[in-house]
Amino acid sequence: MTRHQHPFVPYAPPRLSPEESLARGQELYRLLDQRRSVRWFSPDPVPLEAIETAVRIANTAPSGAHHQPWTFVATADPDVKRAVREAAEIEERKFYRERDAPDWHAALARLETDEHKEFLEVAPWLVVAFAQKSTPLPDGSLRKNYYVNESVGIACGMFITALHTMGLATLTHTPNPMGFLNEVFERPATERPYILFPVGYPAPDCEVPDLDRKPLGEALVVHAPLPRG
After folding, report:
1. Rounded to an integer, what distance in angstroms lies between the CA atom of residue 76 and that of residue 41?
2. pLDDT higher than threshold 80 for residue 226
3. Cα–Cα nearest to 153, from 58, 27, 226, 89
4. How large is the angle between the packed helices 148-165 and 48-58, nearest 10 degrees?
5. What is the pTM assigned to this prediction?
């Protein structure tokens, strides 16, 4: 048995048969292949417990040195949502009307997005994932965090997966810059906004762009030869 200088606990998850393992994976794929980013939301309420559950799932994500450098801030307050929308649309107008980014504008054309972000007020919840560049400690010092972008990105991916699994929809909204979110939500300078998630049910008349996902043959390269049976 390995001798440790820090606490360790046994880890022995159930060993699945190859058939059950593959069946579980294929079932999850069928579920997540239906996931789409949504910009038309129903105002129907979503219980806080659903947000809490999604964040609990996000908290299971791996992170650099297990520092878990994220904070999820959620609001259902109409006044706060209105303030977020107003500030976001200021930045979005600059992007769509003033910023010289023809390639980026062309890439977005098929999504038919513009500076109007009504969904930020319609969706029952707004959840902002903040990335912690450093974490304040009880003694007033700051702990440096590692692989922050990677860690928070994984947690956000699991947050999205959790929402879709519960029948909810979201959008990874990233107005640039997003510093106004620190002001609206009174977050410290040690955190920076990472993704703004409107969360709710899709509107009854919701539509999404007709897009295809990258085929497996383009997403996966099997470099080593397959084992022989």
Report:
1. 14
2. no
3. 58
4. 140
5. 0.95
Mean pLDDT of the chain: 96
For 96-116, give the secondary structure using H, E and C.
HHHCCCHHHHHHHHHHCCCCC
Strand, helix or coil for residue 71: strand
Q: What are 54's two structure tokens? A: 């999604």
Determine the 3-state secondary structure of 218 from DSSP. Answer: helix
Amino acid at 163: L
pLDDT band at 229 (very low <50, low <70, confident <90, very high): low
Q: Which tens digits make up the pLDDT trace of 12-26? A: 999 999 999 999 999
The helix/strand/coil state of 128 is strand
Q: Which residue is associated with the tokens 């080593």? A: 224
What is the predicted pLDDT for the residue at 206? Answer: 98
Site of tokens 């620190």? 182
pLDDT confidence of residue 150: 98
Specify the 3-state DSSP secondary structure of 82. Answer: helix
| Beta strand ranges found along the chain (DSSP E) | 70-75, 125-132, 134-136, 142-144, 169-170, 191-200
Q: Report residue 200: phi and psi, to 5°.
A: 175, -165
Contact partners, residue 16, CB within 8 Å, separation at least 6: 24
What pairs with residue 142 in β-bridges? 136
Reported residue count of the chain is: 229
Task: From 57, 117, 45, select the one nearest 84 (Cα to Cα).
Answer: 117
Q: Which two tokens stand for residue 1?
A: 């048995």
